[in-house]
Design brief:
Layout lengths: L12 H15 L11 H8 L3 H13 L3 E4 L3 E4 L3 H26 L4 H21 L1
Antiparallel strand pairs: 1-2
Helix pairs in contact: 1-3, 1-4, 2-3
């Protein structure tokens, strides 16, 4: 797993690390029982302080996605992927609510909104096939 930090991003580095691990868990690149890269290694690779990586890993642990084992490192929990997918679904539900509110403010009909979504899906599918 490769974690990159965008120094020009206003999002703190520890959250960028946490986001990268969460995404890897959601996509299945990290599965239950998999060990996260050691804190020191991740700090070197991302060019951040070890405390920053430690903070990211502790954040993931607080959300139940990983579990620290004294002297051994951090491992993805058995239900880490399930929890992450549920959190993403809840976030998506909020975004759908925001999208619907915005559509209402612009007098966009349900049919027009669905057409826009379908057009985006079609574009994504074409981009996926061209890779």
């Amino acid at each position: 797993m490769i974690i990159t930090i965008d120094l020009y991003n206003s999002r703190p580095a520890y959250l960028q690390i946490s986001d990268a691990v969460r995404k890897a868990i959601a996509l299945g690149a990290l599965q239950a029982g998999d060990k996260l890269p050691p804190i020191r290694e991740t700090a070197i690779n991302t060019r951040v302080n070890r405390n920053t990586v430690s903070r990211a890993y502790l954040e993931l642990e607080q959300h139940g996605l990983v579990q620290g084992r004294q002297g051994s490192g951090f491992y993805v929990t058995e239900d880490g992927a399930k929890q992450e997918k549920q959190a993403r679904r809840e976030s998506l539900q909020l975004k759908i609510g925001e999208l619907l509110a915005e559509a209402e403010l612009t007098d966009l009909s349900s049919d027009e909104l669905l057409q826009m979504v379908e057009a985006e899906l079609s574009t994504l599918a074409k981009e996926g096939n061209s890779k």
